[in-house]
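Notes from the pairing session

We agreed to fold both candidates in a single pass and log them together. This is the raw record for the first candidate, unedited. Please don't reformat it; downstream parsing expects exactly this layout.

Candidate A
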Amino acid sequence: MSEVERALLAVDMVVLLISAADGVQAQTRVLWQILDKLKIPRLILVNKVDRPGVELDNVIQEIKTELNAAVFPVQKIENEATDGVKIQPVELSENDAAIEVLAEFDDELLEQFLEGENLNQNKIQSVYSQQLLDAKVFPMLFSVAKMGLGISLVLDEIVREFSDINESTDSAFSAIVFKISHHPQFGKLAHIRVFSGSLQKKELVFNQRSKSEEKVNQIKAIFSDKYQDVSMANNGEILALTGLSDVKVGDVLGKKEVKRNLDFNTTPILTVEVKPKTEQDYIRLSEALIQLDTEDPLLQFVWFKDEKEFHLKINGWIQIEILQQILKQRFDIETDFQMPTVIYKETPKTVTIGYEEYTMPKPCWAVVKFEIKPAERGSGVSYKSQVGVNDILLKYQKEVERTIPKALEQGIKGWGVTDVEITLIGGEDHNVHSRAGDFVIATPMAIMNGLKVSDTDILEPMMKFILTGSEDILGQVASDMHKMRGVFEPPVFHGDKIRMEGRVPFATAMEYPVQLASRSGGKANIQMQFDGYQKVEDELAVIREFKGISPLDRAKYILKARKALQ
């Protein structure tokens, strides 16, 4: 899914395909949420309307309910669920379902609609086109793709409503990097979508993340697997740039704001160790994983050099198989992936103070004092400073701020620390002995000192689930959920079918989709989606060993940081 998400950064609009036979799936909901965040206009295309047993009214209602969106058909169907199905467009002025939705977005149209007045066709079309581009309304079309039925009508709608979507009078260059790849001849390629302005090769381009400029060596147009040199990147184009060494997926190029980013709330919930099958491939594997990490930032590759371990973050077994194939085919490296582990997190139990005086052995001087507070669940990490530059110079305070994320990678129970507010409330530097690196060393020690005093709660990943099946499995499912520490709403009955929604810990439900399908003979299905972290009781908490030398082992940690310990 992560590759799909990154690709969505580059598109103008989306045709979301839903099977009339299968309805809204788990991945449909995930994609819809991402499209909502990116505010990408979309058409909904319901395919397989000829399939026997399809009840189109139920399908339309399910889409409206599951996606919670302003959806309406713009076509009518005759002879549904048969080989003789026919698809006909409906004029907006004659489409009561569309007018009812559109009226909510325009006061004049709403008044005319409520008063029963004759509606202006041009007014309806204007409101429709604007709300479609603003991703507020979502017309629904139908098709039988295997027969080519309805496809030309979809293309007509795309041309009519989206042909001018790239028009921009802004001359300031802006683009987003949606993909990183590596080419044997050209090296690192940054794939971009240009949103405004233009860029010439050999020109400097500003990167908003790194706040620095780099020179673009070449600009490549891509046709399938072939690359063609072009002299300029223009608005609306998708191209690849060479020469940018410090560039990552999601970077915005140019100084103009781009209203798209990678904040999809896609959180890997498994970590896995990767080993080369032969020791001789150890360094080659590290280089390959570093390269893959630049291409897919969700992998979050970590190299624990003391333990000689490589760790990646993933979302399931299929991803392991894909990574093994990539490492073999692209890099000719045979690998073994160990058993994945659920990613827990930790958060401070109480407000605490983290303090450290790093003043020996000379030359060094860094004194820092933090207030560390538990924060609202799901809020992540926030940092601020209340210390004046007369106590700690601004350049040293910037080093503290840069070091905070690294200091929180492992807490006192071995997991990343989250949902925490950290405030620098005191400290001092020395006009002779202080160096920037002193504050890099002192900050993790102070943070860990504070967490040790406070202690931490373990948080576990939770999954939101929707379970459907025959009513005769209800008792077994309810029992299963209780055993897995799940909670659920009262089930909803549709004839002899049930639908159940709730939340369950990922650690206990990881294998449940397969177990449920097997137990029910394929007549029941559960769809799960990550739904944040939740505190787990202390007796169920999973603690892992700290990787590397802990800042709590003060003497060794300082020696290691100062490269006096190998």
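Candidate B (folded immediately after A)
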Amino acid sequence: MLRQIPLIALSVAAVLLAQAAAQSCPQWPAAATGQGITPVERARAPITVFSELVLIEYNAVFKFLLAQPELGLVDITKTQITLDSVRLNYVHGIWYEMPPKAEVLAHVDKAGPKPARKARALLVMGKEDPPTVREVLVTLENEGGGLPVASNLEAVNIHSSKWPEVPYNQRPHGVMDQVGQVIAIMKVYEQLNLFLKAAFNGYSYGESCEPKCIGDNYGAYQWLSDDIQRAIYIWFFMPEAAEGDGGYIHPLPLQVLAAGRKDDLSSWEITKWWFNGHFFPSISDLIAAWNADKDGLRTSFRILKPAGAAKLYSNFEARPGPKRGADQPVGPVAYEPYGRRFSVGQNNRVSWLGWQLYVGYLPHYGPRYMDVRFKGERIAYEISMQEALASYGGNDLSQANTVYLDSHWGIGASVRELVQGIDCPMTAAYMDAVTFFKGASKPNLHKNAICVFEHNPDTPTLRHYSYSYQFYGAVPGATLVVRMVSEINNYDYITDLILSNDGMLEVKVVTSGYVQATAFKAAYRDSFGYPLMYNISGTLHTHVLAWKVDLDIGGTQNSVNIHHMKVGEADDGAGGKIYINKYEAEIAETEDEAAYSTSMAAPKIPVVIAESKKNMFGSPRGYKVQLNRPLLNLEPEGYDRSKALGFMKYSFAATKHKDAEAHSSSIYGQARLSNPSTSLTDYVDGEPLRNQDVVVWVNSGLYHIPVAEDAPVTTTTGNSLGFSLVPFNWANESPATDMADMIEITSENKAVPAVKTAVTRCQPSYLDVKFLQSGWESA
């Protein structure tokens, strides 16, 4: 039987809809054009101790450094570079140097003097004898509200290291390497093109190759020996289109090793060749084997190129055939019936439902979040990314030797503009990022590179419907997301800081982008990957993200309480024995006791506590560190190239805070994995840890076996990494119970969820945040 809707109900509904149509939801001030703050407001913003450098400060520091005669620095973007002059002194990067923690806390918590504001600069000193890499500090002053003044050049150790300088051939990637690669390839240019045209149907490399062009790309740098201190693995590809197509998954079965001896650029040459599963010492040997058809090298060589719709596998062009959702191309969209419940201040200070924090970034390491507070109490002084590793495996030349440490390439400097409605919801506010990296001559302004938005996770934070139907109680879920995306060559890292209304904090990184591919062989299915196209396979690789978490629970005197999960015995009540779950809590006395790799056979739950601060039940207040996807380093103990991967040795490690131990990895580790300037293993040295200022170091990782569904790019679903910080006796009850939308429904109290009345208040409207296609080209 059909139930009829009473006419009075229809009338009420019509009135509500008419009222809603007449209203517009509160929104961000129109002058902000979707930004958290306007450019004018940003320029007027007072500088705080947590503020990253702004445009005019970068310019002041760069101008000051160029004016120091003893440094002999040049602007490489305005310098004519030749083989004789390629070894230059130049500024590779500039970033804000966070003051010593004690000075910051004295200023912020006790109204002490504001610490001196300084910038750190990375200088590549190619003209020195011997050439070297240094770091210096520059003091910034801004008296009277005028332009910043840079002064006081200060020589310092390499960041997070005792090294006063770094060997020249551990420098970050720059123009010298590009010159070296060109020199190496030009020495075999004619022979290379003879072979390419013969093997690849008339395609060639370099100038005048149109319309049949072959491109090249490079993997990681390696220090192979004291003689060969700089080497690069190069692979060739055949692009389908100039734009909108990923050359990363169009590789040819041709790879080379280019290397130079010590600091001599003219010595660069191709020292090893790999073609279709065979290794050769020179191009002459490769050509001779091809002409002689050695081992069927020529007659057995076939490349099956995709045709028709299959050619679209590496791009985002529309596929032929019917489209799912064509009649309803947009799904549910969030809106804010009472306006934004969060705010973004002038210095990237974000506030939301009792949470406050400063959002920042470093050009090499990426995002950092400072002075994170909940309900007025500092939970963490700093939460910052330390490294993003991608380590590959294969039986060819390039993939087998590829280990990327993305701090070297610039995680923070690779942030890109976000697209409204896709990267971030329509309700998001946006912030810009400013970096100075990779030998630039001016700061790079990354428009709309950070977005902030409130998100309804669609799962209640608290919820129970009584078994006897007596009551229903709940607190609706609510989270705030701070998002930035780094695009480092082929890969995209979507980094979220997620704050919950119950005091939980989650750091989540989702991976996407193109896989790094190679020529497919049947044996690959058993070891390294599955085909993406007829001749092409993605390559097995490992992703690891490393983070620093400087927790301050109730102050800076904290301890680590490790709960060892065990199996105990009990009586079943009838004289029998049963096994039960239990834990044994043990406070780590030293750093060695608080550093371990996750083991399924010996699970541990670490909690950072304030032993002297108790909740009302006498339990030490604390936060649990929940490792959401720990990964074990499978490389053999003591393996030489693992020294730069010290952040992978421990799933969880806690050390005593030291300003000199600011990072667990280094931009200089990429070029020499066997001798990094910084390693987390050096920090874990047995010092007392109990009731100290505790810093936690965690990692999260995944193994990626490429499959057909990784074309055109890797899906974000199922590919998340991260960790959570969860209140652990920090409060006396769930911190979510003071939420205004908490509800209890009983037989006497027919409460209505707040959302059901809120949605009738207004119709959503959104600011239009234009996609500017803004970006920058590195030097």
